[in-house]
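Worked example 2:
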Amino acid sequence: MSAARLRLWCSGVVQGVGFRPLVHRLAAELQLVGEVENVAGAVRLELQGERRSLELLLRRLPEELQPPGALEPLAPEWLPPFVPAPPGLRIAAASAQPLGAGLIAPALAADLAPCPTCLAELHDPANRRHRYPFISCSQCGPRYSIATAEAYARAHTSLAGFRLCALCQKEFDDPTDRRFHAETIGCPACGPQLRWQGAGGGGGDPLGAALALLAAGGILALQGVGGFQLLVAASNGAAVARLRQRKQRPAKPLALLVADLEAIAPLVELSELERLQLQHPAAPIVLLRLRPDQRQPFAGVAPGSAALGVMLPASPLHQLLATGFGRPLVATSGNRSGEPLCLEPAEALNRLAGIADGFLLHNRPIVRRLDDSVLQVIEGRPVLLRRARGYAPQALALQAPPGTALALGGDLKSAPALALGGRVWLAPLLGDLAGPLPQQLLSEGLEQLLERPGPGLAALACDGHPGYASHQLAAVAALRLGLPLQLVQHHRAHGLAVAAEHDLPLPLLVWACDGLGYGEPAEASGHRLWGGELLWLTPSGAERWACLRPFPLPGGERAMAEPRRAALGLLAAAGPEALGHPGAACCRAAFSPGDWQLLLQAIASGCNSPLCSSTGRLFDAAASLLDLCQRSSFEGEAGLLLEGLALQAPPPQVAPMPLLPAAGLELGWLDWQPLLHSLLNAGVAPQESAACFHASLAAGLASAAAEAAGRLGATTVLLAGGCFQNRLLLELTATALRGGGLVPRWAEQLPSNDGGLAIGQLWAALADLPITK
């Protein structure tokens, strides 16, 4: 057999997952020589030896690469061998290409929770890394959060300043060692160290000081994986209340950190799939429903919710804290409500000074902010609600149409997306663009992507709302670069995102249900604030077939945070009888008599009382009428409380939601008035009213979809938008659709909220690009 040389460009999740050590092991076994090098976006192999051995390497590489590593299809390039042959095997990394804001890093791996082997070493008194908070290997540890540049290499991370000791260097250089070329390697002698800042000084034991603070009911600021977190004992109601007061987060659910699932299993419904998701290397927060006979076991942690958000340790430091404390801990973002995560110790000591009682710090810099990811299991499938640490920056498991495009998403839950070479990357959640820091991060990330070598962008896409910061940023960039700018209607983008994930060809029906989105011009639709739209998605756009019956929002934007205003608008639209109904007493009591009359006059005159067809605002109105929430402290609070209450009731009666004729709509308005009457029925328990609301809305959505599907010949209905984060609504709607012979589909690896909006925008932009060969 003759000698040959193989050149191979390996794409996928191939950096920071032990891919180069795997290639080195296989090449040594097959007596191959040459080089394996991390480069920006890929790994380059240049290997030489017997042709048969090289072909065997090609077969074995995809088979033996372990998760989370993932290899794209290979395209081998066969070349004449070098004479003389290279002297051996060499592992290398290309020169640095700075990542900056790093929204998209095509070859880098996500941050991974400690693997079982590292955990065993962490707890082994005989191991030299016993209780070392930064233990890691080629299969686990920080990756994206510490990367300063591509290609992946220790010198291109925030560990660059930590020089390896002799023992660690020996492991790093030994092809038979499991830490061979593990770039995050370190030990107590040469790696990062903990530091305590707070009362008591720690006595030389920062971890011990932190645990003592938690045991005493104090609030701990922890320098975590993608930023700071705030921790308290979950069972200490006073400590939780103090955290909420200081953090200015009065009601939004807090996540629980547990050392193992046995601490939480008796309280929640825990399926095998949920257990597997909790144990996944991404270490997400998983929403677990409480057992039917179980009330919220931790006072103040998740008030009114039917679920607990639970996560296992995302790092060895979290593991040591959780096992050392021995009971569930609250672990929430290290910031005041509405502010970005604190990233650096100096920043945390300043911004969290009035919140935390002590600080557990370390000297390994965090390069970029990453929130915890959140998911729930629906009908036996994991559904992401927030895609960040543990998942980003890896490519999505979907195939994009040809072309290179960038979409900026929306202003809420900003998460841009890039399509390149048939692959798609969704950036980790940036947060809401209301503040200057998220806008700055988005601007810097956009500039970096525009300057990236390789195929240039063919189009930019964004939401059609001209007031969005993302829209304005995209418009300026498109004008400067001479790129086409694709403005994508909000709810069309929601639907296209679900179609893209499931690789479904158009045309398709979609119910897009969310808070508020910018609709088509008022002349065509009668109102511009949408949020409950039945659309027929076609390759050329979206035809609107039905929507929720519009109702006014007195005060406009203020109504988004005040469910009482949505309820008042609903009552006013229903007429004088509803406004004076005894069942509306809770809503009336939420206003002073003067404000009530003033807002009714505003509605009557159309002054700052725009019409909307929003499902989210309909949830708000129901929560107000049941006196669950008159002013919300976080987005979706009313819906969460309504769902929690509904799950306490037996199967409900269903109020009809007829379709009313409406100009410009094939089917018309889905009428909520019978549903409103059921909510006003004072003789019904609130739990039953909440359950009736969910069941009736689901039945109404399914009935309208079935009517449209019958006329259009459709068989599939997409369920898109943030309201379908409500598991009860989604499950009831899916069941009702199946009862009508239709197939429901919803977002799973994408958030159904605006965090997945950019994917739909990408598909719209790519479909409009000219086809070139």
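The mean pLDDT is 92. The CA atoms of residues 213 and 220 lie 7 Å apart.
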